[in-house]
Amino acid sequence: MPTYLIIKIQSKLTEYLLITTEPMTCPVPKDQQPLNEYVELKEAFFYRWAKLARSQYLRVLLLMWLGFTTAFSPVAMSIESPSKHLWQFICVASIGGSVGLILPVLLLLSGWGHVKQRLDSAKIFYEESGWYDGQTWEKPEADLAKDRLLVAYEIKPVMTRLQKTLLGIVGFLVLSLCALKYF
């Protein structure tokens, strides 16, 4: 019995539905197929944060930053005493929180980048039963076009958001370092 795949893509102006009317003749195991990897990634607890609405996404980032800043506060206390140098203590704790926040954002960027690369690629590397029997499969043009459409409308905006987030964190880190040095 043929299986049908429906992919819903939403852009700012329109909504697209990609429907395959014929079953995929893909020899790649289901868990290694790029489209299934995408679905799994976007539903995963940690990785779905990147697709949240802007206010929710910023709230998650703020809460993570506050968590890392709180966790780094004892180290900041050993560097600068909050009773004598409150501003320096805040700057050092903020630096620790920013460095801590870079790591999950890099992990998000890495995961989404991997799926983007697999969907964008014309040839897919897969393992049939173990590390020793790797194969490559070339996607048919129709599947490649659908995957690239998915990348353009679903994954590139997430990647752009994560890159801007990383840039913002690095900017905040530089600002905190400058404030620590000059104030």
- Measured on Cα atoms, how large is the radius of gyration? 22 Å
Structure classification: alpha+beta
Percentage of residues in helical conformation: 55-70%
Strand content: 5-15%
Quickly count the domains: 1
- Distance between the ends: 70 Å
Would you write up a description of this structure?
With 183 residues, the protein is an alpha+beta fold. The protein has one domain. The chain has helices spanning 34-43, 54-79, 86-120, 141-182; strands at 5-10, 15-20, 123-127, 134-138. The chain has a two-stranded antiparallel ribbon with strand order 1-2. The protein has a two-stranded antiparallel sheet with strand order 3-4.
Question: Keywords for this structure?
Answer:
183 residues; alpha+beta; two-stranded antiparallel sheet; 4 strands
Give a short overview:
The chain has helices at residues 34-43, 54-79, 86-120, 141-182, and strands at residues 5-10, 15-20, 123-127, 134-138. A hairpin with a 6-residue loop joins strand 3 (123-127) and strand 4. It is built from four helices and four strands.
